[in-house]
Amino acid sequence: MFSLSLLFTFILLNSNLLISVSGGHDGHGHDHGGHDHHGHGHGGHDHGHGHDYDYCRRSSETVTACEGSILRLSCPGSKIRILAANYGRTDRKTCIKNRPPHQIRKTNCRSSSSLSIVSSWCDGRQSCNVPATNSVFSDPCYGTYKYLRVKYCCTRRRS
Q: Is the model's pLDDT at 45 over the cut of 60?
């Protein structure tokens, strides 16, 4: 299902792919949909990093880390390209375990700086660890339990 060069720790749970995250949380960063088959990333931009690496090797992946945990990305032998990111909440299904209803009610919560922050931490690197915290992204919706969702790919060398 995944290339052997992508050394991620995935857990198969209820037919949803979850990336393992560290922190005091249960790791239930549900990414309803798992593998994203739509974004093949054949655009030529590289966010100013890695001019020899332009195109995504395979389809992009979307991964999620609950607030207070760390999102870990890795592309051994390749480089990370961040395609999209949001720290906030856009549904009532992700990162909900042991959370009271008032903490998951708001679903139009987005940190406008998410993409630039995650890109600055990860673009062009082989691996990166991004804390899903208010101290990194600020707090786009006080009182709401948030998560960091990132769409990325591992690039291949330009041919």
A: no
Cβ atoms 39, 83 nearer than 8 A: yes
Residue 153 in tokens: 């790919």
DSSP state of 37: -
Torsion, Cα 36 37 42 48, to 10 degrees, reads 10
Spatial distance between the Cα atoms of 47 and 100, rounded to a whole number of angstroms = 39
Q: Does domain 10-157 have CATH number 2.60.120.740?
A: yes
d(CA 89, CA 34): 17
- Confidence (pTM): 0.68
| Rounded CA separation 153/99 (Å) | 31
d(C-alpha 13, C-alpha 67), whole Å: 20
Label each residue of 98-133 as H, E or C. Answer: CCCHHHHCCCCEECCCHHHHHHHHHCCCCEEEEECC
Tell me the C-alpha to C-alpha distance, in Å, between residue 18 and each of 46, 108, 119: 27, 23, 21
- 94-130 pLDDT, tens digit per residue, is 999 999 999 999 999 999 999 999 999 999 999 999 9
What are the residue ranges spanned by the domains of the chain?
Answer: 10-157
